[in-house]
Amino acid sequence: MAIGLEDKKAIVAEVNETATSALSLVIADARGVQVDSMTALRKEARENQVTLRVVRNTLAKRALEGTEYECVNDTLAGPSLFGFSMEDPGAAARLFKDFAKDNEEFEVKALAVSGQMLGAEQLDVLAKLPTRDQALSMLMSVMQAPATKLVQTMNEVPGKLVRTLAAVRDQKEAAA
Q1: Three-state SS at 117
Q2: Who's near 25: CB < 8 A, 6+ residues apart?
């Protein structure tokens, strides 16, 4: 069914708005994937704040103009499934990586983060990025480590004194 000019403009505007606010983009070829598997993928994408779109390549090129994802225009050939990560840069990569394990037909074509295009072989790098909560947890543990070490060091002085007094007491008891 043909898409009218107004509908095309609406699609371009919607994808452009999504791309402008997205943190990363993963493009995949989903030919041959069963419908029920794609439905499950879409459900999981909604849960992980990943926006999935299937858009014609000509419309996608127009929609991505002026965004930091314009760099992926050369990879747009054949059917493309766009996964925009909205809150966590690695969310779409993790989602597509897990989905590709169960579906051999699913093939990741390209990735883009901060205006830099990465090849499909870089999927693991993006997928292994920590989530916001994990990153904050790592940061807090790094910030907490010096204070913890200081307290342990300060506590060691009275502890050593107590152990020395206990050793003297044991020595005097043994001598008596």
Answers
A1: strand
A2: 19, 69, 72, 82, 83, 84, 85, 92, 111, 112, 113
Q: Comparing C-alpha atoms, which of 82, 80, 78, 109 is closest to residue 24?
A: 82
Best CA proximity match to 90, nearest among 60, 114, 73: 114
Distance CA 172, CA 155 (A): 26
Q: CA angle at residue 11 from 13 to 15, to 5 degrees?
A: 60
Predicted confidence (pLDDT) per residue in 71-99, tens digit: 777 777 777 788 888 777 777 778 877 77
Instruction: Report the distance separating Cα 123 and Cα 94, nearest Å.
Output: 8
For the entire predicted model, the pTM comes to 0.65
Report CA 131 to chain centroid distance, whole Å. 6
Sheet containing strand 107-113, edge to edge, reads 50-54, 81-85, 24-29, 107-113, 116-119
Residue 51 CB contacts under 8 Å (≥ 6 apart), including other chains = 18, 22, 45, 82, 83, 84, 86
113: which residues sit within 8 A by CB, 6+ positions away? 23, 24, 25, 89, 126
